[in-house]
Structure formats: C-alpha cells, structure tokens
Amino acid sequence: MTKPSISKGTRDFLPEDVAKREYVFGTIKNVFKKYAFQPIETPSIEKLSTLTGKYGDEGDQLMFKVLSRGEKFKKAVNEIKSVDSISESLFSEEALRYDLTVPFARYIVQHQNELTFPFKRFQIQPVWRADRPQKGRYREFFQCDADVVGSNSLLFEVELIQIISEVLNELKLDDFVIQINNRKILAAIVQISGEEKNFTLITTIIDKLDKIGPEKVIAELQNSQIGYKCVKLFNEIFDLSASNSSLIDWLELNLKDSEIGQNGIKEVKSIFNYLKHLNLSSNCKLNLTLARGLNYYTGSIIEVKLKDSNIGSIVGGGRYDELTSIFGLKDVSGVGISFGADRICDVLNERNLFPASVSSNVDLLLVTLDDADVNALKLASYFRENNVSTTVYPSGAKLKKQIKYANLNNIPYVVFLSKESSMEGDLELKNMHTGEQTFMNKKEILKKIQN
Amino acid sequence: MTKPSISKGTRDFLPEDVAKREYVFGTIKNVFKKYAFQPIETPSIEKLSTLTGKYGDEGDQLMFKVLSRGEKFKKAVNEIKSVDSISESLFSEEALRYDLTVPFARYIVQHQNELTFPFKRFQIQPVWRADRPQKGRYREFFQCDADVVGSNSLLFEVELIQIISEVLNELKLDDFVIQINNRKILAAIVQISGEEKNFTLITTIIDKLDKIGPEKVIAELQNSQIGYKCVKLFNEIFDLSASNSSLIDWLELNLKDSEIGQNGIKEVKSIFNYLKHLNLSSNCKLNLTLARGLNYYTGSIIEVKLKDSNIGSIVGGGRYDELTSIFGLKDVSGVGISFGADRICDVLNERNLFPASVSSNVDLLLVTLDDADVNALKLASYFRENNVSTTVYPSGAKLKKQIKYANLNNIPYVVFLSKESSMEGDLELKNMHTGEQTFMNKKEILKKIQN
C-alpha cells in the first residue's frame, strides 16, 4: 500500500490553519459588509464557452477542464478520425472557475432583471489554476472580490481603496503600498506614438518591470519592433522621480494632445484628491508603469504590494467598461478588487501576526477517571447550552494521557469526574495555564470559564 | 451572441440566497463548535487513486474527473493503440471530491502524527456528483460533516445524535425522525440465513424499502436468488409493530445464536438508554430496515427524515471501523454524520422558516441630491466606523430612483444629502418602513439606526 498523498499544488488544512484563514476571510468580509457589498456565489464548474478566451492563451492552458462522462465521452471517441486530430477540447465542455470576475460578468448578464444597479457584490470562493506551484502560488486558492457594476462614478474606486486600507490596517500589514494607474494613460502613450495595434504586447512587456528591471524592458520593447517614440516615452517614465506631482506634470505635458490621455489624467487627479481628503494618500502611489495582465481593464488599475515582502501582489483590481459585453450586455461599467487571501495568510504567518485567540477552539475537557457515563454527558450539555465548547474524554484512560490530550489541543480548563462525582455538588477544576486546581460547583465553573 | 448559461445541475446564488445559506451553515457550525469539533479543510481536487473504488461503480461513474493537460494529455494520446481502447481513465489522474469522508480518511492517515485522538473534526465544503439533477439534488452541493476518529465509544454516537437534534430544533424543523440501526444486526440476519456472500446485494435491495414498498422488496430478494430463510426474516421485520421494544424482543429471540448480532443489539440498547436519559428518545426510532448505501459502515447507522416532507434524507451517518485501512492505517474506528445543507435550505424555503433578519444586509443609504462628494464619503465613513453597513448613491439621480433603490434593496434608513448639507448639523433621516422623516445630527441618526 503506497502512502496516500494529495494533488500537486493543493493543500490540506489543519484546525489551526482553518482558524487562521477564517480570521483573514472574516476580516475582509466584515469590511465588505460595512461598505454595503452583498454576497453572491457562482458554481465551481462553468461551461467552457463562458470561460475560454477570456484569460488569454495562458489562461486557456492553465484551466482545469472537466472530462466528459459516459455517452458524451463515447460520442467524442467516435468522432476521432485520426490520432493527430485529438485535442483537449474534444473531451471537455466544462472547466473549473479560473477567477471570480468572468463568472460575475456572466452572472450580471443572466440575472440583470433581478438586480438593482449600481450593484455592489462581494464573493469569496476558491479558483483553480494549473500553474507551476511556488511560494505564495497554489493550484487551488481563494479570491475575495468586491465589485460595483452599473456606475462609472470614481467614488467606487475610492471606496475600494478605502476597503483595501481598512482591511490591511486591521491585519496590521502596515507597510502596504496601493499603486494606482489608469489604462487610458497607457492607451494615450501608445496612441500618440502610433503603436495602437501593439497595445497588448506593450502592456505585457511593461508589466515585467518589477521582475526584469527597466533596461531589459526597454531592450524587449526594441526587440519587439516597437517604434522609437514609444520606447523613448517609457524610458522617460522610468527615469521620472517618484512624486505623484512630477508624474502628473510629465503627463500633462506629453499627453496634452490626446483626448483619452486627458481623461485618464483627470480621473487619476480626481481619485488622488478624494484620497487626500480622506487621509489615505500616504499609502497610495501613482505608478505609470503599472499595466496589469488582464486585458479587460479600461480605466483605473490598482495593485497592492508590501514594502518589506517579496510575496508579490496581494490585492489587484481595476475598472472595466466592456466586460459584460462579451456576454451581450453593453454599456455596463464596473470596477473591482480582488484580495489574494492565501498570500495574505502566508505573510501573516511569516510575520507572526495572527492574534493568539485564533488558535484555541475548545474551552473545557471533562476528564473521566471511570468510563464516561450519562452524567458526564449531562454535565457537558450544561456547559454547551451556555456556549462553552466542551468535550468529554470517552473512556477512563490514564489520567496522564487525558491531561496530555488537553495540552495538545490547547484546552484551557479541565474538570475531573469519577463514578462518585455528584454533578450538583463541588467538582475539581484545573486551570491548564496556571496549574491551579480548585473545587467549585458547575455554576461557579461556568462563571470562571466565561470570564 | 447566445445568452450565457450555467452548467446543468449547478446554481447561482443571489445575495438573499447566500444570506439564507449562511444562516443554515452558521447554525450547524455553532453546534459543531459547542461539541468541540474542530474545523479542517481538504482540497477540491484529489488523486483518482484516492477516490476510485470507494463509492461503488455508480460513484466512479458519477465522479467529475479532471482532464489531463499539456504534456500528460499528449502522452495519453500517444499511448492510444486503437480507438476501441480509449477509456476515460486514459485522460485523467484527478477528480473532484465526491464526499467528505474518503478525503477525511486519507487526511487522517497522512496527518496521523499531527493529530491527537480521539480527533473530532468538522468540515463544511462542496462536493460534486454528476447525478441526474432533480428536486433537492444538485451536481454541486455542500456537505456539513462531523466525525470522531480513534475511539469506539458509543458516547460519540450519542453526541452526534445530540448535535442533530440541536441543529434541527434550532432551525425549527421539529418533525424530524432520527432513524437508527446497526450494521451488525443486518450482518447477523444475513449470516444466520447463510447469505453472507450476498450482504451488499441484500442491503442494496433493503435500502429501497421507502421507495418501492415491502412487497416489491421481497419480490426483488426472491428474484435475486436470496434464500428462503433470509427472505422470511425480512418479511417478519416488515410486519413488526413499530415500537422499539417489540423490535428488540424480536432481535433477542431471532439473533440469540449470533455473536455479532448480540453485539449489535447491545450497542443499540445502550444508545437508546443514553437517549432516554437525555430526553431525546421521542424523535429517535430503531429501524431494522435501514441499511444505507455506503459499504464502509460497520456499526451504527443513522438517517434523518422529516415526517411532513418528501425531500428525502437530510442527515446521514454511521460508524466505520475500516475506513482508514484502505489507506494503510488499521484499527482506527470512526463515527460521523453529514448534514445535507442544500436540502435543508430547500425545506426552510418551502416552509418559510428563515428569520426575517436574514434578508436585509444594508442599513443605510445616503441619497445624494447633487453628485456625491467627499463630504458624503466622510459621512459614510462615520457610520461604517460604527459598524453600520452604509452605501452612497453615487450620482445625483432623480430622488424617486434613489428611493426605489433603497426599497428594492430592503434598506431600512435613508439620509438626504445635498451640496448645502452640513455634515455636523442636522440632516434629514427617513425610516423606510414607517415613512417617518425627521431632522437630527449624525450622532442621533447613528443611535436611531443602532437601536
């Protein structure tokens, strides 16, 4: 018998892990709720026709596809003309959710008559990508998304940035930097240098700046036959000093003849003006080289990193004007963010930032010197009715073993029971942290534990 | 463009649906926690070698298998010798979780050195089965499982029955009946009639009693060449009066020569004795025809139905002595239950049993007679900091439209803002339920909403 194991890139979670994850998810969810975002859920399995082509070629390759079953499988086999003609798509009509945004766009279109706009939703569910596993990257991981659709007000960009700040402050990740850019600015730079047809290629290359540095980015732009003017503009941007106002000055000078550029500048300025009044500017930074991989963004783009960590982006997002039009519904602007909860958990672990209270789940163990009987169960019921998480050691195992059980499970209180114990009289209570042992009745014990 | 749609047997959940589901999951989870069960999670995707053969042929067919990708897919194609030799297993090494029990057994074996036994765990996660969708049956649905492993104490059967009662009482599903049987009793009946080799076949037929009635069950047993003695015993059982004591009398008479039968009777009597002392017997019933489809059960079996509903089983479970031995770890007895949370949600919906508080998520809408500005955001922050779920209408749309927005979203309070409003002075508040409109400052508004 070989030892069982799990699939590459997936994880089992022990009770302590789950408690930690719930702390992170709970923090994010509470903030979403305060900002009046409402929960929705979509299926794990979507039709391939919904997902294919929405994430680029790489996305299509990394998608977990579901194998057709039974008659459908047989039909596919019968359609085979030669072995060379066999492709993955022959055997699959469904795939696992790759992100929460595309299913959300599908959801908006399908349920448009049941929703009121602007619709603010949040969604906390797992997604699956067959990426090569590495630090902070898993094949099954949770996204925590908040989006507003049906309004082009920049107010919602601001609300989402408020949410990011509030969550990361609550989690004590105070070295966060919210980088902000606008796709309209990137579009304008590409447009005025006559490279509109290469927009996607250029943003893909620019996106590598953090990984490979400015020189290699410039070299790659040149190698990809991007014209001199465009390369020169990006070269200038890389050389600009970091202050927001110097970046804005440069933009106003260089994009003065581009209408889309002017719109982008106006949006960025307006957002930073809001942030200043809400005292949020200190963690926010305009970053003209931020491009973000996903092509559906059309306006603001947002990416959050931690200064003192190499875990990569922990929140990302942006505005998309055309996402629902791929499903037939036009003119619905949306803006959203996505927290990478798994990476956030990893950082909190590394930095030891989980509150101590997160790890203890059970309050009380009833130690049974003889086998547990109905009296032990009744006493347990008394504590449970009063919301004390209680467990009964089932058989009269050695005292040492039962005490060890309490210690290994971080149980703070123990009550000793034997056949002679009167459930209405005094019982012996042990505080496992201090070692203190006292006799008291069940009401007094309850009071002690509840304090 | 075709209208987008979702995969057969899957569901989208609107905010109200999610709130209702959270009410059910939350109720179950709180009870699990009071009984000191600890949360774990396992991956959605497991190796096929872990899952195959654990759920019978039907299970293997209904499993959602993951299509191999990239090189693995190409390798599989290269191995094809003739079209006739192509089977589903050629293209798949992984599948979606089919239940929570087998992954849990795998987890126990893999993490045995990190756990302390008896280990009480709960797990609330989705599972996938490509069943034909019908009322109360979905292809993606949640199971809420609680199991104890590493102890053969019947105390845990009793705790699980306590949990079932407590959850269903809290959900006000008071017509529940907890049916209890023991596989040892079924084994004894089969054994004394010399049909040991047909045990699985017989339990599968007996399991249909509710659906097809006693006469057809008897006929099917006879058609399957089950011997006279066995058929006669089951015929007698079908004719027995319903009281627990008459069933026990019959068992003691008929199984007196079977050691395994005596053990089964002893266990059942012991459990019912506990239940009597805990005042739980009135909802519990011994049912000698209860067999349960899953073959890993070896002792107690439990199934819960509602008297006044045809939704089928809403909780099921039992004891298994050999589950971890399929993964190489022997002598670890376990017992567990699984709540069918989706069916429970369906029944609560049908019976209108969700509390009214479940459907309202947002407390306050700031109506903006002019476009929302930074003052509106600051006022929203004030309420959010005080845990009032607040949303701002972004643009100065018509008053009627904004009021309608509040109504459609069940928002109970509205504050009217214009360019002239002083956030520190009196503001107009409307109670959307009573229609009452009053002027008060933000502190007074906060107090009013919090009450």
Report what the structure shows:
2 copies of one chain form a homodimer. Chain A is of the alpha+beta class. Chain A folds into 2 domains: 15-350, Bira Bifunctional Protein, Domain 2 (BirA Bifunctional Protein, domain 2); 361-450, Anticodon-binding domain (Rossmann fold). Chain A is 40% helix and 19% strand. In chain A, the strands form 3 sheets. An 8-stranded mixed sheet of chain A has the order 1-5-6-11-10-9-7-8. In chain A, strands 13-12-14-15-16 form a 5-stranded mixed sheet, sandwiched between helices. In chain A, helix 1 crosses helix 13 and helix 7 (183-192) packs antiparallel against helix 12 (259-277). Chains A and B meet through helix 1, strand 1, strand 2, strand 3 and helix 4 of A and helix 1, strand 1, strand 2, strand 3 and helix 4 of B.
Please describe the structure with a list of short key phrases separated by commas or semicolons:
globular; 8-stranded mixed sheet; alpha+beta; 40% helix; Rossmann fold; 451 residues
**Number of DSSP strand runs of chain A:** 16
Category from helices, strands and their pairing of chain A: alpha+beta
The largest β sheet of chain A comes out as:
8 strands, mixed
Beta content of chain A = 15-25%
> Oligomerization state of this entry?
homodimer
Radius of gyration of chain A: 28 Å
Overall pLDDT of chain A? 93
Largest interface: A-B, 102 and 102 residues
- The CATH topology name of the largest domain in chain A reads BirA Bifunctional Protein, domain 2
Number of domains of chain A: 2
Specify the number of helices of chain A.
Answer: 16
Strand order of the largest sheet of chain A: 1-5-6-11-10-9-7-8
CATH superfamily of the largest domain in chain A: Bira Bifunctional Protein, Domain 2
User: What overall form of chain A do the CA principal axes indicate?
Assistant: globular
Model regions low in confidence, pLDDT < 50 over at least 5 residues of chain A:
none
